[in-house]
Amino acid sequence: MRPLARGRLTMAGPSISMARSRIASLIAVACAVFGGAAMVTATAVVGETGATSHLAPDRLTGAEILVTAPQRHPVVEDPDIPFPERQTLPADLAADLAAIPGVTGAAADLTFAARLAGTELEGHSWDTAALFDTSTPAPGTGEVVLDTETADATGFRSGDRIALTTAVGTTEYTVSAVADLPGQGLYTDAATALALAGHAAGQADLIAVDADGDTAAVAAAVRSALAGTGFEVVTGDARGDAETLAGGTARSELIELATALAATIVLLVGFITGGAISVSVAGQRRDLALLRAVGATPRQVRRLVASQATLVAAAGLVPGIGVGYLLAERFTAFLAGSGTTAGLPVALTPVSGLIAAALLLLTVQCAARIAAWRTSRLPATAAVTESRVEPRGSGRVRTVIGLLVIAMAITQALMPLVVPGEAAFASAATATLTAVIGLALAGPALVRAVLRFTTRKSGAGTGAPAWLAASNGRAYARRTAGAVAVLALAVGLTVTQVSAQSTFTQTAAAEIADGSKADATVTGAISAADLAALNEASGVDAAVGVIHTDVLRIYEMAGDVEADPLPALAFSPGIDQVADLDVEDGDLADLTGDTVALDAGTARLWGADVGDEIGLILADGTRVDAEVAATYGRGFGFGTIVLAADLVTGHAGPRFYDAALATGDPAAVSDWAAGVPGLTAEPGAAVPYISTGMTPDQWLNIMVTLALCGYVMLGAANSLVAATARRRGEFAGLRAAGATPRQVRAMMRRETLFLCALAIGAGLAVSVLPMTLLSLVFLGEPWPQGPLWVIPAVAALTALVANAAIAIPTRKALRTPLTTLVAAAE
Known about the structure:
Elements: H1 12-21, H2 23-52, E1 65-68, E2 72-75, E3 78-82, E4 89-90, H3 93-98, E5 103-109, E6 111-116, E7 119-125, H4 126-130, E8 143-147, H5 148-154, E9 161-166, E10 169-179, E11 186-188, H6 190-197, E12 203-204, E13 206-211, H7 215-225, E14 232-235, H8 239-243, H9 245-282, H10 285-293, H11 298-337, H12 350-371, H13 373-377, H14 380-386, H15 396-414, H16 422-458, H17 464-475, H18 477-515, E15 520-526, H19 528-536, E16 540-557, E17 560-571, H20 575-578, E18 583-586, E19 595-599, H21 600-606, E20 613-617, E21 623-632, H22 635-638, E22 641-644, H23 645-652, E23 657-664, H24 666-674, E24 680-683, H25 696-725, H26 728-736, H27 741-779, H28 790-814, H29 818-825
Parallel strand pairs: 7-11, 8-10, 17-22, 19-21
Antiparallel strand pairs: 1-13, 1-14, 2-3, 4-12, 5-13, 6-7, 6-9, 8-11, 9-10, 15-23, 15-24, 16-17, 16-20, 16-23, 18-21, 19-22, 20-21
């Protein structure tokens, strides 16, 4: 038989004709693509915002060009890690840059933290303000200039004497002027600003350049002059990130968040979309077999299926992308409210939509071709013969691979028994997804085995509907296993996310509660002088300052230098008086100078012992080799690494403490804090913080989990509706054999019961085991943590979705007259 003429046009007619007769299954594909496009677009917008958005310049908006040291650590094959604190550069660069043609002025900028009349604010050197304000006299030694907003907030005016507290102490200054300047804060002369900022002599935070004429040309000249120095020349919108480092940190967090979400979302989208397409192709096997019989080549059949799926996907793609942009706006608004985005503008460009479209269309193409692969390659006669029945075997190789993947998931679930720290949580959570993938592969064989065992145990007393339901489940094991895998994914994902989050939170809270010895906590911008005064206060036994900071642990792997970011707490001497970290080796009294203490599990993982040195990069980019003074057991509560405050202040210069932990009479601590404007005290230990409600991170996890589970439920419902709708021929056969509509509905209810029991059982099996082990290892309780109502709630929702998705199309089909039903089935 001569094959059909090659080309796309030849298959257009059959494709459209087949689509008209399989609307239900194709709608399922469109809905799966719709949900997938919305989720992928929203995630892409978050990532694009992190990659391209910038904070608008504020105080230095008049400077067309900013010169700064690199404010990030380069990482091989990964996004660079931004520094939370600023690297400095030589202040005398300003004079060199001022001599470049087109530059009308250049000034070194210095910034320091201060506390004035109980208000925390920033101070700056006057030189940068003088570039744009020549009418206000420059402050002299012992003088400050206030901007109008700060003056209004504090009530000070020109000529007033103020007590300004900085990290180096409290000093009195005279307000020489109040000026209407961009930004907020106060200004001092350059020498005073340098002393208060704590930088080394001759250093500055950045250089502001005022250009005349073509900014791009002047910036190119500045770059040429700085070639080889490593300093960066910033223009346009990127100036905001150079002025305010919070923008760079927020961008990095958004990229990290989008990357973390992308892997799970892409996996789910592929899983759900691929399942919907498989159901659609399964409903067209007879049509595809007939095409093979009339001469269509395997390649033409696969192309037809892929083209049809792509056209249907396009119908769900466009509205899905639009909804994705709306979701992204709401999502980033939530992130902004929690302080994650630092006010970055949302990047609502076509790029994210194009990424979603390309990814979804690629997924649809691959899934359609894979689903049609077997039918397209069968001989024409075999394809026609097999089009009425499902292949008996599910493939030995597929089953073996699936069982191996399930075994891998069990191994991951057991990791908390041998792997310490947060790695145990990551491994246990990943075990659920791994197990579901294995279930999808080995599902048909497992479904047949379970239903065969169930039927044998039920004996001869099994009623006709139940017997038919079990027989159908065995005969169409692939169809049943596909639905089981998707529903099990929804159950397992929900239980895993809720339980893992609850276990982590309770573990950290228990360690903080057991390790906190402070009777009161003072918060605010606390100077070294404040801390010394608190230690001397009557009724106070000891006071220890705490700094919240970040470090990078650097190490070599495969010849490359890697860096892992770690949040850290830095304590002034005396940590053992206010906290019990459950020391396992060493002595926390030695936590002074360039020393650190490590979580014991992390120390073992790193191969670091007491007395060893580890390479760190501080928050301002300073590289140090810190000695390990001690190892401790309460790493979840107090973090992976604890620093000596000397390590931070000794390299980055003086800075405020973020809090002070005190022992003694809480009332005495409160009385002392009441006499220092800007500081507050509360009973007990507030550092580390024990969450008493939902944190922004927990709300974020819940939002993402609900969205993912909603999408999985939608995909499952779509697939079940499509699979049930294409069983009209089966219903027609049963009706022709004498079965009443009531008996057919009874059979379908039994099938639904089997399906829900398998799905809920599998979902709980793949999630309860790893979550139970997590709870047992870290909390000593042999059951998953979290609200107990989550498990029955997700089980009930799964059963409701499955029942509705099967019962509604079944009733609709059975309302059709038998003759019409038989004709439609053909």
